[in-house]
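Trying the structure run again after the queue cleared.
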Amino acid sequence: MAGHTVTSYEDELKYIVRRISEMGGQAERMVEQSVHALIRSDWSLAQSVVADDVLLDAAQRELDERAVMTIAKRQPMAIDLREIVGAIRISNDLERIGDLAKNIAKRVIAVHEHSQPVQLVRGIEHLSDLALEQLKEVLDAYGAGDERRAIAVRDNDAEIDAMYTSIFRELLTYMMEDPRNITACTHLLFSAKNIERIGDHATNIAETIYYIKTGEQPEDERPKGDRTSSMVQPTPETPAAGFEG
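Done. Tokens:
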């Protein structure tokens, strides 16, 4: 009987890990498709992303309920408890990533109605490539239970922040040069910020993996390269390239 109980418990843990993997794959697709829709003004694809967010939300609620039920029934200790609590945290991050992808998709129509600077659109595409690489890598680290690989993802987040800061600078300059660009650039700016936040959630997942495996939080400060809060508006006395560091 005891052996059956242990096997059942292990099956529940495997189910939770598998559901996280499935949610992660769905979140990846939503991010990729939302940026693809934004760049190519594909409203049909954008609508598909918005619809998929409902499914991801439902998966997150189902996983949380399953995890809480497992804790109540099995009363796990130590690493088993961290595994379940960590899964709840990760599912919440994946749900938020889905929300951010949905927000990007909702801007497709607004951006389509205005001309878009090619170099900035390419910059956003590059930013999304970096964020998707981070997300894929951290999900692989979760599946492998590799906390060192997860911490490497965390350390790379500064690259996404730096790219976002560069795009922010270019968008601000473009808006200052011609007020007619303000509407389109504002939507692109919010989209870029959403992608940067996706990178932050990948970093959250990395820290959760480290916690699951070690029972501790990373000791060092999270690297940060987002400098947009220290920028000043360009003026004749302060050229567009002259931002406070």
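The chain has one domain: 2-230. Worth checking whether this holds up in the mutant runs.
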